[in-house]
Write a structure and sequence with these properties.
Layout: H1 3-6, H2 13-31, H3 35-45, H4 50-65, H5 67-77, H6 88-103, H7 109-123, H8 126-143
């Protein structure tokens, strides 16, 4: 390993997939196009980690298919915040995590939440991390009857 790569932290493959899915969902929402179409456009124009593509595609298509129910749950948990007031990046981070909590049984809810927080630290503001944590924690507890 070269010296300049030795001090660079290794990003887990699933996190790369989540980050890719976030970028695609963000692009789709801003451009007003379907997430599946945005995914194809993204990978056609940008160099993406090939090993991260499969899970990223699953996340994007899963969020797209269940968008109304995910947004309904987000709205329930964010009592004083309308979805439209949330930052696009934060809304999509939470959609991905909720999708994983509800529809990816091999991903423990706490892992989905922790990964969402790591992605938020990279792509959003410091204030957003606490907001995202509160919403996802409440949704996870509600889902699992805690």
């Amino acid at each position: 390993m070269s010296p300049e790569r030795a001090d660079k932290p290794r990003v887990p493959l699933r996190r790369k997939s989540r980050e890719l899915a976030l970028q695609v969902l963000y692009q789709a929402e801003l451009a007003g196009i379907a997430p599946g179409e945005a995914f194809d456009t993204y990978i056609g124009h940008f160099d993406a980690n090939k090993r991260a593509l499969e899970y990223a595609r699953r996340l994007v298509l899963g969020v797209e298919e269940r968008l109304a129910s995910l947004d309904g749950l987000l709205q329930q948990q964010s009592e004083n915040w309308r979805l439209g007031r949330m930052a696009v990046i934060d809304r999509n981070i939470m959609r991905i995590a909720l999708y994983e909590i509800l529809h990816e049984p091999e991903v423990p809810p706490q892992v989905a939440i922790n990964e969402a927080l790591e992605v938020a630290r990279r792509f959003s503001s410091d204030d957003a991390v606490g907001f995202i944590n509160g919403i996802l924690d409440a949704a996870g507890k509600r889902r699992h009857g805690s």
